Amino acid sequence: xxxxxxxxxxxxxxxxxxxxxxxxxxxxxxxxxxxxxxxxxxxxxxxxxxxx
Length: 52
What we know:
4-stranded antiparallel beta sheet; Luciferase, domain 3
């Protein structure tokens, strides 16, 4: 299991007037807080959250 991180032109660069931006964005990656597994077919399944 690992945290789902996303990067791409369609990912918002920040939260509007919110301190969570610094927690969630690192080197252009959005750390979602979702703990996931990836099965043999490449499907992502959310298993847990790092925070609520």
